[in-house]
Amino acid sequence: MNNISKIQDQIVGAELTILGALKKMDEVKKKLLFVFEGDSFDCLLTIGDIQRAIIRNVPLTESIAAILDRKKIYAYAGQPLEEISNVMFRENIDCMPVLDEQRRIVDVLFWADVFQQPQPQPHRKLNLPVVIMAGGKGTRLRPLTNVLPKPLIPIGEKTILEEIMDQFEGIGCRKFYMSVNYKSDMMRFYIDQLPHHYDIEFFEEPRPLGTIGSVALLKNKIKTPFFVSNCDIIIDQDYCDVYDYHCENRNDLTIVTAMKTIKIPYGVIQTAENGLMTSLQEKPESTYMINTGVYILNPELIDEIPEGEFFHITHLMAKVQQRGGRIGCFPVSEHAWRDMGEWPEYLRMIQVL
Fold first, then answer.
1. pLDDT tens digit sequence for 139-179
2. In a 3-state reduction of DSSP, which class is residue 155?
3. Contact 289, 259 (CB under 8 A)
4. Residues 302/218, Cβ–Cβ less than 8 Å
C-alpha cells in the first residue's frame, strides 16, 4: 500500500521559516514535516530539530533549510522490506520515506503498517521525583472550583491530576510529592479510591506560600534533580528530552517554555515628531517564549527556598541568576502546551481531549 497521500499535509518548502514550521506542526498535529526543494525531497524536519535550533538561539525567522539534519536514515526503492523493517525497529523509527535514485519519494512506511502493532515507547526510563503544586483555590475556574479542587476537575474520563501523573509514570517517575491546601481532604479521599495506586506523599501548606514556597517543606527528602509541575497544565513532550537538556547544559533550573504568538488584530502605526506617521503595519504578530509551569530543579535549590515565607518560582530564578547559576529554557510549540487555568482554556482543553 502506497502511503504518499497520507503525508500531503506535512509537505513544506525549504524556504519556510522556523516559526512557520512550528505553526504547521501545530496545525496538522504532527511533529514531523517533509521538506522539499522544488519538486525534490530534501530532508525530514522533526520537532527535535526545531527545539535544538531555538536552544542555540537561531532566529525564528531563519529558514528551515539552515537547521536540517541531513544525517537522517532513509530507505531506498528495491531495498528488501525485511531490511527496512529491521532498521525501523532498531532505531525506533515511526515514519520511513522510501526514495528512488533521484531522491523522489516513492512510498512512506509507517510503524503500524510494517509491524501491525503500536510503536513501543523508548525503553529508557527516568526515576526522578515529581512535585505537583496543587494547593491553590483555582479562583479563575469558579464556580466549578467552589465544589471541586482544581486538580480533580475532569478532562475526559480522568481528572487533570491523573493525566499529569500518568504522563510522568510513562517515563518511569513513580514518586510524587503533592503540595496541598485547599480541599486537601477531598483530594486525599479521591486518590485513595482510585484502582491505580500512585505513590504520593502529601505535604500541606499551613497557608498559601506562593508558587514554590511550600517546597521548602521537602528539605532533606529529595536528593536528586526533580520535576515540578503546576496542577492545571498538560504538555505534549517527552520529558526525558527535557532532562537530557538539563543535564547536558549543566543547568541549576530548567523551565519548559512554549512559543506563544500574539497577533494584534489592527493596523499598528508608528509616528514621529508632530504626530506624523512613519509606518503602518497591518495586524502584526510577535512571538514570545512563555513559562508553562513545568520545571526541573537541582536538589540544592530547595535550600535556597526560605521556610515559612511566601515565595514564587520567579523569586527563586532571581536568586539563581544573582549568584551566577544557570537557568535553561526548553521550548515546545504553542499547541503542545494546554492550560486549564481559566474557563476559555479549560473549554479548549476538553475539546482537544
1. 666 656 655 667 777 777 888 889 999 999 989 999 999 98
2. strand
3. yes
4. yes
CA distances from 3 to 107, 113, 127, 286 (A): 6, 10, 38, 37
Known catalytic residue at 283: yes
Answer yes or no: are the C-beta atoms of 177 and 129 closer than 8 Å: yes
pLDDT confidence of residue 102? 82
The enclosing H or E element of 96 equals strand 95-99
Q: Determine the Cα–Cα distance for residues 51 and 249; give it in Å rounded to an integer.
A: 14
Identify the residue whose cell numbers are 514621529. 272
Q: Are strands 233-235 and 337-339 parallel, antiparallel or unpaired?
A: antiparallel
Would you say 141 and 150 are in contact if contact means Cβ atoms under 8 Å apart? Answer: yes
pLDDT of residue 104: 85
Question: Using CA atoms, how far apart are residues 319 and 184, in angstroms rounded to an integer?
Answer: 31
pLDDT at 212 > cutoff 80: yes
* Stated pTM of the model: 0.85
Quick check: bond before 143 cis, omega within 30? Answer: yes
Per the residue annotation, which of 6, 29, 219, 283 is the catalytic one?
Answer: 283
Instruction: Summarize pLDDT for 37-49 with one digit per residue, the tens.
Output: 877 888 999 999 9
Helix (H, G, I), strand (E, B) or coil at 121: coil
Q: What is the dihedral of CA 201, 219, 315, 52, to 10 degrees?
A: -70
